[in-house]
Amino acid sequence: MEQLYRVAILGATGAVGTELLQLLEARNFPVQALKLLASERSAGQHLSFKGEAIQVEAVSESAFQNIDLVLASAGGHTAKLWAPKAVAAGAVVIDNSSAFRMDPSVPLVVPEVNPDAVMTHQGIIANPNCTTILMSVAIWPLHQVQPIRRIVAATYQSASGAGAKAMAEVQAQAQAILNGEVPPTEAFPYPLAFNLFAHNSPLNAQGYCQEEMKMVLETRKIFGAPELRVTATCIRVPVLRAHSEALNLEFDQPFDVAQARMLLAEASGVKLVEDWQANYFPMPMEASGQDEVLVGRIRQDLSHPCGLELWLSGDQIRKGAALNAVQIAELLIARRQLGAAPASLSGLC
Ligand code: A2P
């Protein structure tokens, strides 16, 4: 008989939370009971799961009792506060925030890349940053054939990365600008509609923003490649929910373009989208709602004999966040890691 699990979504009312809910239903995740948690602001709201209206509860000390799995997407501050309590109550937490990603005791997992890392969890598993997930899925198949030495990334990031309010804001801004009105700016520092700006996360002393440093540090951790050289420029663009990335990859030896194309055509989680005659390549509008990362424009770097150029678009809410988290949960079930004692405790008597 299939084992069923008691699942909680923390941040259930957010952009990623609502996608988690839909994915649990669409993928027929083995749910025995489902608890929807958010802030006080949303308590009492109802969300639908398998035709049933489930009431959202404010997260509380008792919320994680009798819960096997917590899928969290409620920001770093909330995760730091509640994830340890959920683990203490016996749950495994898959957290979408950056709170635990660089903690050496917390696995940072992209199932297509480092699935074995889930075996080391001690209660919390971190879901990587969205741009990092999308990039990792697209370049890991190449890295396995010939190690990548250096990545130069430029990102084109949608409003969804800043949450549901930011998505609504960019739509309201577009409407206001078309009406000749001043666009509202609450979620973002500047108007995003008909505009773009450098990613709105704090800068370090070297001038890199947090989002760029996530791509550097998280990719190294996921790939198990501490020497990997990565540099990134992250830009927010007026797109609703899919991120795009221009990637320049440097190897020790020339990488045959036809081989790269063949590897990516067969890679798990990747869809090759290339029609050179029609200038048809990955587009965020087409990536939205798709599980796969769309990859195309694979070509030799004219400026470097060992360089490859490629372009990708991937659904930030889906593979960049909610889908990756659900895939981690499915991996835990497949590896019998859910409902079992965490690795650090097993063997104790
Ligand atoms: P709420 O809707 O009650 O504010 P998004 O990333 O789309 O902005 O969504 C963030 C999610 O995290 C929402 O579900 C939000 O709930 C939830 N959240 C934010 N702050 C807290 C908090 N302090 N405690 C619990 N949930 C929170």
From TrEMBL:
Domain Semialdehyde dehydrogenase NAD-binding intervals: 6-121
Reaction equations catalysed: L-aspartate 4-semialdehyde + phosphate + NADP(+) = 4-phospho-L-aspartate + NADPH + H(+)
Record keywords: Amino-acid biosynthesis, Diaminopimelate biosynthesis, Lysine biosynthesis, Methionine biosynthesis, NADP, Oxidoreductase, Threonine biosynthesis
Any Pfam family matching the protein: Semialdhyde_dhC
GO molecular function: aspartate-semialdehyde dehydrogenase activity; NAD binding; NADP binding; protein dimerization activity
UniProt key word NADP: yes
Residues reported in the UniProt entry to bind substrate: Q157, R236
BP term (GO), one: isoleucine biosynthetic process
Name this polypeptide is given: Aspartate-semialdehyde dehydrogenase
